[in-house]
Amino acid sequence: MAEATVTLPGAHNYEFKTERLFFRPLRFDDVESIFALKSDPQVFYWAEPFRHKSQAEEWIGARLESNGYLSFCIEELPKTQNSEACEEKPGMIGMVGGTILPEIGYMLRPSFWGRGYATEAVRGFIKFYWDTFPEGHPSIANHDERMYLKAVTGPPEEAPQARASIAVLKKCGFDYWKDEGREDSFQPEEKIMLPVWRRWGPGYGP
Fold first, then answer.
1. pTM
2. CA-CA distance, 46 to 151, in Å (whole number)?
3. Which long-range contacts (CB under 8 A, 24 or more apart) does 14-19 make?
4. Which of 51, 71, 109, 187 has its CA 20 to 30 A from that of 33?
């Protein structure tokens, strides 16, 4: 695991691996991959998908300039490539990590669903996070919020992706916490109530 050298508030150079996956920092040259993820309505089912690559550029810039951002691009390790004869590697297959800590999230390209990668990525990030920041990330001003990680999913009754995300979170030790109002990107003037899931850090909890 590399030691962080921060040039922008949300930039880092941490890297880590799990059994099948490699995790690296987000970069400005990830525009194509981010656009492919966030323009796919299967992936971005709970919000308005991106329509222009400039949105991906703005999204990356905003994350790298955010003090509470700690996310990773996900790549397959070579031994997990589907075909040894395939010369072209899949590159970035998704993302996992903190958007505005302590909130975390993940997304994967649909062609990599159903392999257990989401659970492996979330578990890997959780271990990395608490091993690296045992007292919580320093960007979190509220001391009580440093004790846990949380995640928000879409309403489970509205999309199978939401139900799958909830199953991943439960496998990773998250429990339902509360419903929380969020801006509805399809109708910005409206609020939508979404379930929030929480996982206490080691040694913390009620």
1. 0.86
2. 14
3. 14/72, 14/128, 14/132, 16/72, 16/124, 16/128, 17/77, 17/124, 18/120, 18/121, 18/123, 18/124, 19/120
4. 187
Question: What's the token pair of residue 147?
Answer: 């004790």
DSSP, res 201: P
> Which helix or strand (DSSP H or E) is residue 38 part of?
helix 31-38
Q: Is residue 95 within 8 Å of 26, Cβ to Cβ?
A: yes
Tokens of 43: 């992936």
Residue 188, H or E segment? strand 187-200
pLDDT by residue (tens digit) across 51-101? 999 999 999 988 888 877 899 999 999 875 554 444 456 789 999 999 889
Burial of 121 (0-12, 13-18, 19+ CB in 10 A): buried
Tell me the C-alpha distance between 11 and 5, whole Å.
Answer: 8
Residues contacting residue 192 through CB under 8 Å, at least 6 positions apart = 155, 181, 182, 183, 184
SS3 29: helix
